[in-house]
Structure formats: structure tokens, C-alpha cells
Specification:
The N terminus is likely disordered. Strand 10 and strand 11 form a beta hairpin. 33% of the residues lie in helices and 19% in strands. The protein is built from 9 helices and 13 strands. It has 287 residues and is an alpha/beta fold. The relative contact order is 0.12. The strands form 2 sheets. The protein has a 7-stranded mixed β-sheet with strand order 1-2-3-4-5-6-7. A 6-stranded mixed β-sheet has the order 8-9-10-11-12-13.
Length: 287
Amino acid sequence: MTRTSLSCLLALSITSFSTVADDDRFKDVTITSQKLTENAYMFTGSGGNIGVSAGTDGILIIDDQFAPLADKISATLNEIQAGKPKYVINTHYHGDHTGGNAHFGEQGIIFAHHNVLKRLSAKEGTPKAALPVVTYSKDVSIRFNDDTLTLKHMGPGHTDGDSVVFWENDNLVHMGDLFFKDRFPYVDLNGGGSVIGYRDNVAKALTMMDKQTQVIPGHGELANKNDLMKFKHMLDDSINWMKKKLTQGKTLEQIQAEGVPPKWKDWSWNFITEEKWINTLYQDLKK
């Protein structure tokens, strides 16, 4: 997916569930499956990357993109293994990760942090089937397909309800939107997000990985620990840079005029431009 199309879809995800099944924004989208281990896959399409566990215990999915894509996601799942997902994990509440909840929640059990339920419930028109059934405050583990998947909440970051999902045996992790590969992230300050918390949560996740860990980002191609470390370096540099500007008494307008350090300029993209990233850093760190 191009960064332009991704930015448009992310913008839609923040405002609402996509409920118009005949919306042709998604008619040309293809759901692509990438096998990562014997039982684990990554699906890409439009919206957040989907993690899949498929095996003798059935099917589990992590995130489910937009509502109009549910049938295409189901078709791709059926190419791997017949049946409907038993479990659905929401890494956070944004519509590009939870839009398919109403479809998959009819027969599957949805897991998410307490705040995901809170925020989805507050959205007018959200169907009951789209709401998490099992919620938690910190961690919960699911023993499934000869592995243990642990859903970990490490505090406010991208939103106030983020979960990172670790496979114990497969050495695999789904970062949700605590990882935008090679681009500036979206920190949802209105959704309880925190720039410092985001960076600290990435740092915590890194301590739980090794060089062989496969990392599914919320957006972008399959990655590894080094890719996530590079992302953290960008976060560290951005935070330190903004703190210095604030100490110098620079205004937002002055900082925008200067721009981000040259080494990070190509991390700008249509949804989180250099300007928007600077604004996010400024608004959160000036407190």
C-alpha cells in the first residue's frame, strides 16, 4: 500500500467505524497472506496489519482492519484453514484495526484492554458484537495452537488501551500501532496517548526480543528487532530535540520553520507529516 492511501485510511479510522458495506473505497483491496512460522501468518490489506494463528485449536486473529474488508479477510483465512476465528484480539480501538469486529465478533470472542471497550462503547452506533467480551488491565495469556500468546498492556502510548502480543514459542510479536515501520508514528493524544509513554513502551518491548524475533508492525512490512531499535532511536532523538527547543524558549512556529533534524526528514509521510510530528511533540512535551 502506498503511503498516500494508508494516510487516507488512517484518517478514516480515527473518526468512525466503517459500516457501509458497499463503500467502493475497498473494492480493489487485496488481502495478502505471509507465512511466518508453522502456525503464524501476517495479513496485509488496508489498515493495520493482521496477525493470525491457525492450527489444530482453530483460528485466532489480531486486529481486523475495516468492516468492508471482513469478507475478503475471511476468504484469505479460509485459504489457510477452514473455519471462523475463535478469538479476536484488538491491539487498540482505532477503526482500521477494529472495523471488522462486528463481523468476527458474531462467533468469535474479542479480547482487548479495558479502555478499548470503553472507547468503542462510547461510539454511537457500535453494534454489541463489535465490543470486546474479555478485557484486562495489564496482561492476559491465551494457550492456543501449541503456543502461548501473551497480551501485554504497558501503559499509555499510541492510545490508553494498547496491547502488544507476544508468541512464547514462535519468537514473534505483534506491536500494534506502537510501531510504524520507518515513518513517524501517530500518537493519539486525544485518545490517551503519550509521546514519552510511547517511547518507553517500545523500549520495554525491545527487552523482550532477540535478534531472531519477527516483528509485525501496526503498519509497514514485516520487521525485526533492529528495525524496531531504529524506530526507538528516532523517538529518542525527536524527544530530546524537542525538549531542547522548549528549553530554549522556542515557539511552535519557530520550531516548525526549522524542521526536524535532517536524518529524520524522510520519515515524514502524508498522514504524519514532519509538521504534524513536530506539533505532536510540542503539544505533549510542553506540559
